[in-house]
Amino acid sequence: MNKRPNAYVLAGLGVGGAVLLAVKNKQHLKKWASMFRSDEKVPEKAGHPDPLDIQDNKMVDEGAMTSVHYFNEARQ
Q: Which domain of life is it from (predicted)?
């Protein structure tokens, strides 16, 4: 693999820097940059659930029983 940066990468960085320095109206750039940022809220109960959370445990239990009930009906 080439140890030196690619000429296209350097040219792209140079052009990007020149555009940022040359643009007088920064509002256009702020609008463009905000398209890439997300305003969505991150879910609070993501990942590993707390074993002491009763409401979450009930929901998991009900979901598990639904699949068991479906399997039992399919077998009978």
A: Bacteria
Structural domain containing residue 53 = 7-38+49-75
Is 21 within a domain? yes
The two structure tokens encoding residue 23: 């643009």
Instruction: Please name which of 63, 65, 59 lies closest in space to residue 45, comparing C-alpha atoms.
Output: 59
User: CB atoms < 10 A from the CB of 40, how many?
Assistant: 6
Looking at the structure of the chain, the number of domains it has is 1
The answer to whether the pTM exceeds 0.85 is no
1, part of any domain:
no
Q: What is the pLDDT of residues 10-27, one digit of tens each?
A: 899 898 888 777 766 777
Distance between CA atoms of residues 12 and 44, nearest Å = 39
